[in-house]
């Protein structure tokens, strides 16, 4: 049995999947399995995944949804086949730096009080790296108000026992694109806590047009996730006053001219 099960939902990522998988196979720490589930891709993503499965038959498991189900459903499918003590995430268009698994495993092995470990990310596009994120070392429940997301999802590693205790990812269309935030609320509500390493171990592909995918509906889902999360962790009532502000911010961003948003987006990623 492998120490780590890497779960990856793949969808229309034919141009980037190979580079993403190669970054995993180049890890310094190799005691892991990779479980990929194709979520109804209409390009060559699944065929590329099959070729890698042939190349690494003992290390890769490949699943396929009959239609597009969303990331929360897809990751839960991967979890059903996961055998590792630790669950790591990876997206099909991102890159794990060589020491990522080694350092995350070392942290969880040495710090039994933590169920989650993650790190800030480097952001890049076709023109190269263009920004770096930040992260709070030891997020507390009060930090959930002003610092969403509390952990970067894609580079995280979690104890499987803790993840299964909260029944994995909640499958609900109102959580699409925010399934990670909902997960952190669920885990903290059960007493699990996490830690952010002060190292850049992961590169996220975040193109300059990503904002166009963030519709008003999507932003309203973010407010919904925060409201339900507050209830889960029994957030002090005074912090609920922040939710109308989040609503107004989402409304403002939805109507903001593209060029202005891009400037703000770039500044926030520095």
Keywords:
alpha/beta; Spore Coat Polysaccharide Biosynthesis Protein SpsA, Chain A; 37% helix; globular; Glycosyltransferase; transferase; Nucleotide-diphossugar_trans; Glyco_trans_2-like
Shape: globular
| Secondary-structure element order, N to C | EHEHEHEEHEEEEHHEEHHH
Count of structural domains: 1
At CATH level 2, the architecture is Alpha-Beta Complex
Beta-strand residue fraction: 15-25%
Oligomer: single chain
Q: What is the number of helices?
A: 9
Could you please say which CATH topology applies here? Spore Coat Polysaccharide Biosynthesis Protein SpsA, Chain A
Describe this structure in words.
By secondary structure, the chain is of the alpha/beta class. The chain has a single domain, classed as Spore Coat Polysaccharide Biosynthesis Protein SpsA, Chain A (Alpha-Beta Complex). 37% of the residues lie in helices and 17% in strands. The protein has nine helices and eleven strands. The protein has helices spanning 17-25, 45-55, 71-80, 100-110, 160-165, 179-189, 216-232, 242-255, 258-269, and strands at 4-10, 32-38, 60-64, 86-89, 95-96, 116-118, 122-125, 128-132, 157-159, 194-196, 202-205. A seven-stranded mixed sheet has the order 3-2-1-4-9-6-10, with helices on both faces. Strands 5-11-7-8 form a four-stranded mixed sheet. Helix 2 links the parallel strand 2 and strand 3 (60-64). Helix 7 runs antiparallel to helix 8. Its EC number is 2.4.-.-. This is Glycosyltransferase. InterPro entries: Glyco_trans_2-like, Glycosyltransf_2, Nucleotide-diphossugar_trans.
């Amino acid at each position: 049995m492998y120490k780590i099960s890497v779960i990856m939902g793949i969808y229309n990522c034919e141009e980037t999947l190979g580079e993403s998988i190669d970054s995993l196979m180049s890890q310094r720490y190799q005691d892991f399995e990779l479980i990929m589930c194709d979520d109804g891709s209409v390009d060559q993503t699944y065929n590329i995944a099959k070729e890698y499965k042939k190349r690494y038959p003992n290390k890769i498991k490949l699943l396929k949804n009959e239609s597009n189900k969303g990331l929360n459903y897809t990751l839960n499918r991967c979890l059903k086949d996961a055998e590792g003590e630790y669950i790591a995430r990876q997206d099909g268009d991102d890159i794990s730096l060589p020491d990522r698994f080694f350092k995350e495993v070392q942290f969880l092995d040495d710090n039994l009080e933590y169920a989650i470990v993650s790190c800030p990310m480097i952001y890049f596009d076709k023109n190269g790296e263009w920004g770096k994120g930040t992260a709070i070392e030891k997020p507390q429940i009060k930090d959930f108000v002003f610092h969403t997301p509390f952990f970067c999802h894609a580079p995280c590693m979690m104890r499987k026992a803790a993840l299964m205790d909260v029944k994995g990812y909640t499958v609900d269309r109102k959580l699409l694109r925010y399934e990670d935030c909902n997960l952190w609320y669920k885990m903290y509500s059960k007493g699990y806590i996490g830690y952010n390493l002060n190292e850049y171990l992961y590169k996220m592909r975040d193109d300059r047009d990503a904002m166009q995918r963030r519709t008003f509906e999507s932003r309203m889902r973010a407010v919904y996730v925060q409201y339900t999360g507050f209830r889960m962790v029994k957030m002090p009532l005074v912090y609920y006053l922040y939710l109308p502000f989040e609503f107004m911010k989402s409304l403002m961003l939805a109507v903001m001219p593209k060029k202005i948003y891009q400037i703000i987006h770039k500044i926030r990623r520095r």
